[in-house]
Amino acid sequence: MSSFVLLVSFFFYFLNNFSEGKFACHPNDRNALLQIKSHFINNASTFSNWVPNTECCYWSNVGCDEDGRVVILVVNDADDVVGQLSPAIGDLRYLQALRFWNLPNLTGPIPSTIGKLTKLLILDINNNSMSGPIPKELGRLKKLEQLFITSNKFSGYIPPDLSRLSNLVYLHLFGNKLTGSIPASFGSFNTNLSLLLYDNQLSGPIPKSIGQAKLSKVSVSNNQLSGDASFLFGSDKTVLTDVSLRNNKFKFDFSNVDLPQGLRNLDIAHNMIYGSLPKRLGQLPLQSIDVSYNKLCGKIPTGRRLKTFSPSFFAHNKCLCGAPLPPCK
Ligand SMILES: *[C@@H]1O[C@H](CO)[C@@H](O)[C@H](O)[C@H]1NC(C)=O
Ligand SMILES: *[C@@H]1O[C@H](CO)[C@@H](O)[C@H](O)[C@H]1NC(C)=O
Ligand SMILES: *[C@@H]1O[C@H](CO)[C@@H](O)[C@H](O)[C@H]1NC(C)=O
Ligand SMILES: *[C@@H]1O[C@H](CO)[C@@H](O)[C@H](O)[C@H]1NC(C)=O
Question: How far is residue 197 from each of residues 4, 55, 69, 77, 282, measured CA to CA in Å?
Answer without folding.
Answer: 23, 41, 34, 24, 28
